[in-house]
User: Fold this.
Amino acid sequence: MMSWTRLLRIILIAYRYRLDDLVLSGISHPFAAVLLKLLRFGKRPKMPRGMRLRLALQSLGPVFVKFGQVLSTRRDLIPPDIADELALLQDQVEPFPSDQAAAVIELALGASPHQLFAHFEKDPIASASVAQVHFATLHDGRQVAVKVLRPGMREVIEQDLSLMRALANLVERLLVDGKRLKPREVVGEFDKHLHDELDLLREASNCSQLRRNFAPGTEKGDILWVPEVFWDYCATTVFTMERMYGLPISQVDRLREAGVDIAKLAQTGVEIFFTQVFSDGFFHADMHPGNIFVSNRPETLGRYIALDFGIVGSLSEFDKNYLAQNFLAFFQRDYRRVARLHIESGWVPENTREEELEAAVRAVCEPYFDRPLAEISLGQVLLRLFQMSRRFHVQIQPQLVLLQKTLLNVEGLGRELDPQLDLWMTAKPYLERWMHERMGFKGFRNKMAKEATQWAQLTPEFPRLLHQRLSQRDVSADILHELRLNRQARERGNKLLLALGFLILTGFVSAVWWYFYGQI
Assistant:
């Protein structure tokens, strides 16, 4: 009942902000034009369409705000005026009252902000869909940022997710491709990550893990700066981290004025993405411009700064190997290898003809090679791949939904920084180097080093285990004797069954003969 109430509210809000005008005006059909006139009642909306869409998404809550954040990075798919408005969702969502933020902090940490911190800024510096951030100063003088969860978030998200589950059930039942698309599994994955984002302790642990992967002072730490976590000031609704100084990555003109090499910055962003995915198997999965800053300080100029760690993704060794081989096959235009990988992984039925799948993949991907990023529409590629997947009954993999979303974010960031960036050629050398390190001698050495601790425990036991094995009586003759007896018993049983069958058959034939001829 709550799901349908929520659906009614969505419809009312959509009509309040005249989103029907936004949809119908883009359909070139006489019926759509007539319907649009009827709904307008002769009046046109006063606010611009982008502003109406942004306000509607804000009114509908955090799930829809997240959707708008993803759309804002896809300027190749939506008009610039809508993209500019949706970009405001990244860090300019309407804040909740500071008194409520102080109450959340006091309830979580057991003291008011003015007792916990030497200084606490009442007005938030940023407000997002799930939480807002206040700057503060610890009593030892260190500058921090305090993230506070919005009150009442769980109830709103549960309503939206309940509606999404109902819609997923309808999709699975009514659409031809419903079961193949696995809508319930996809919603379940989204459910998991949204609830993870509501637990700020989990976000703090994600931040800590990413900081270890890109530890300061290391080669990886020189390209990505991750804040330090202050665990004494963290709870499920409060997350306190090191304050970071930089410019939003979307402010390209200011970055250029600060002396940042924009072309190099774009290439570094691609390298960071592939490093997280393939080297670490742990990646920041919410890489919209509001969460990515760039340092403008002289000592760290041009270094990426990661913020907001509520949504992260992780990949198994199988996923990493499979994806890396697919990427390399795409880069090398080895479409037969792509087809074979899909069949071997079980993503397509075993009886799929390899050469047919190869031809379909070639038809989708070949037109997009040797082009700068500005001329590649990943949205069109995904659309054509979807059409192809329907034909070959490709099974959607829910565990890779976050990776697909993050790849879209990376492409959107690349367009903002350097429209001429060739995503394929930037990533290819990195993947080739990663595969060489993994499959070559270096990879073998690293695997040996990881297993060394286990071997150190087992190796001293080898002489004793070997002595026990060699000192045991040889029972192979007994086993052979038992097998021989079993075979003889089976043969006797077969003979007995054959004789019994012959007797039954003889009796049946005799009975039939007597019935027909015995009384003549």
In short: The CA atoms of residues 2 and 159 lie 7 Å apart. The chain has a mean pLDDT of 78. The first helix runs from residue 2 to 16.
